[in-house]
Amino acid sequence: FQNIANSSKECLLGINPERMSNSSFKDWATLIIVETNFALGDVDSGLALLSQLPQSSAKSFVEAKYHFSNGKYDEAANIIETAKQTSTNIAYFEAFLGEIEIAKSNLNAAKAYFSKANELLPKWQMPLIRLAEIEISLGKYDAAKQLIVDAADLDAESSEFLAVDAQYLSYRYQLDEARKQSQLVVDANPNQIEMLVALGILELKAGNSELAIDYFTRATSIERNYAKAYVFMAVAHLHANEIEQALIQLQRAIDLDPNN
Asked: Which residues of 98-136 are buried (b: 16+ CB within 10 A; e: fewer)?
């Protein structure tokens, strides 16, 4: 379900669960269609299908994602905490709780959840990447570097790995190498919001305010509620001596995420 956004949504809607004789596969296919409807903005159809499914940990996961996408973090967390008690894939639920804590700006709580996910499923790269991102945010670069090395051992070519590696290089002011890594990710996936923001930050550090604004604008055109992009866009406008625009973008960021 985490990769729905990177798939052909119209193609996914062509799945016909009724052709599946196994009830578990049928429910799984229906959940994919639910997620696809949500991604396409057809919330009513998604919720209608979701209500028809029997209760399961997978259904709860999708319900929680829906609440999370609407900023209802406590509701999402409550659903996940309950559902993980009956799930056989607890690592994914722990990781989701980590994502919720990141959204709430509780980085230490997020670390605990991602560390648990990594303990439960050490061959899954995502918790290592999230832990590295958190350590970078906390300024703990040595710890971040070790996590990046561990993630590379699992898959040094995944876009998620290249993204966090580029983020680390950027913070360590290895700008040329960071730009190279970031561009690889964006070339593979032009809608990778975090990398577009990372490229914007790189250009800010290099003194290229206008190019930085272009990257931040691309990011906000994909996800209009991404507060981080507006913060850095405000900084870019400030560097360009565009004070009024800087204040406008900063206010947008505050409106979206007043607690961060």
From this structure: bbbbbebebeeebbebbbbbbebbeeebbbbbbbbbbbb
